[in-house]
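Notebook entry, structure prediction.
Reason for the run: the old model in the group folder had no record of what sequence produced it. Starting over properly, with the input documented here first.
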Amino acid sequence: MKRVLLAGESWMSYTTHVKGFDSFYTSVYETGEKWLKGALEKGGYEVTFLPNHVAAEQFPFTMKELKNYDCVILSDIGANTLLLPAATFTKSVKMPNRADLIRDYVQEGGALLMIGGYLTFSGVDAKGKWHDTAVQEVLPVEVLTVDDRMEHCEGIRPVTVKEHEALKGLPKEWPEILGYNKTILKPEAEMAAMAGKDPFIAFGKYGKGRSAVFTSDCAPHWAPPEFCEWEYYDTLWQGILDWLTN
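New structure, fully documented this time:
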């Protein structure tokens, strides 16, 4: 059984309610991994999920640990979560650079998938900040240095532009999405699908390994219910992972 490490896809919300003179607070913790995790598990993959606040300290710091997994998925997780472990941020302790580690992991035969969101690629207010990390070196697209969100509240339909082994069995008609991260295709990469004029799904080979990007979300809000409940949703992710880990 192939093993996948999924990092990100979680958030905490703290809300202030103001009712005239009075106010009170509520907080909630939520995750968005269930659709993707479920699809991969149905395909025979073993998925280890590290929510953002857990990934900060438990994402592997060594190649030996990282090589326990056949593929690493980064989904809606900012570079700072991996670049600023608590020991470094609070005590100025030197720690391994996990962005460098991911690059080396791919070049030595590992697989990487980056999925879009408000904190992957460049993200909201450019806080995703993946452009200036070593991970950029093993992605099939170039990450922008500005806020890269392409919001489409009216809906936008991805278009398949090239047949690719990873997308075998998928129809040409995609469900609409509500947004994606704008990126620039690298010369050596293959673009299989587009959203508007930008990459939607792209693939690349780096060293002995492979990488792919899916520039929209795997869960709401950019992936609305009709996308998450699409009859080919599982086939999509299983095909991408099968190609990455071949």
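Summary: The radius of gyration is 18 Å.
The old model has been moved to the deprecated folder.
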